[in-house]
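Entry
Fold in token form

___
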Amino acid sequence: MASFNYTVDTHPMADEIGKVSNHVTATTGAVVAMQAAVVLAEKRAADLVCDNVNRGFYSLIRSQISQKTAKLQSEVDSHLMQLSQQKKALLAIKFRMERDFNMISNRYTKLFNGLNANLKQRVFELDKPTIDFAVKEIDKVSNRTKYLTAAVSVNQLESLSSSQKILASSVKYKGSKVINSIKAFLSEMNAQKKLTDKILINDHRYVSDAKSLIPIIILESNSDNSVSRNLEFKISEAEISQNTKQAIENKLYASVSELKWKMSTIDEKEILSEFSKLNDLSGAAKRVKEMTMQLFQSNKFETL
């Protein structure tokens, strides 16, 4: 049997395997570097996500706190405005109560002072001599030293002039008091006379015959298409007797044919406003009020 021996050169294969080994080593280094980069990127991404989550959470909390603060601030402002309005209302009530109290106090003070003076006068009239003695005479006796003129028992020439001056001064003082009393009395009488003339009615101002102006309303209307018309008179009943009212109606019936009607020249807005008020105050139904206003606005009336 034949045998063959071959010699195979493995250097190229070893070289290639060495190159592969170098590439594997490089790949291993690259994988390690990539893994480190991935870990670093994941860490950065995690940190970024955490930062964003934290920032969003704090922003949300801050926004909620701001909303609650704004809401509470608005409530506080509304309560403050309400308290301010209540303060103004209370101050107005206080001012009105003080004014009413002062008015009532002055009224009752005047009333009780008048009652006291009246009762004092009545009590004094019960026993006038005793009261005069107790009030007037006792005061005179007690104050007689003030009314006496200073005088000396022995008058010499050098003291006579001083005594006369003192006497003259006392007379002048009493005279001035009398004059002031008369002046006050006359002034008070004059003021009372003027006030009485303003209050009282003098009979000479009025005469038996006088002319009075009485307002009269003449209504001429027709309820159908006929030619006949209805006449109606509205006469004021204040201070007018029935006979006078009847005489006025008779005079109107006699002279109504001479009266001429013409289109109204008065202010219709004022009449419309007054009629609207009366229509609103009436107890009729809403449909009746609307129809009444419509008829009134479409109507054209004439005056004398």
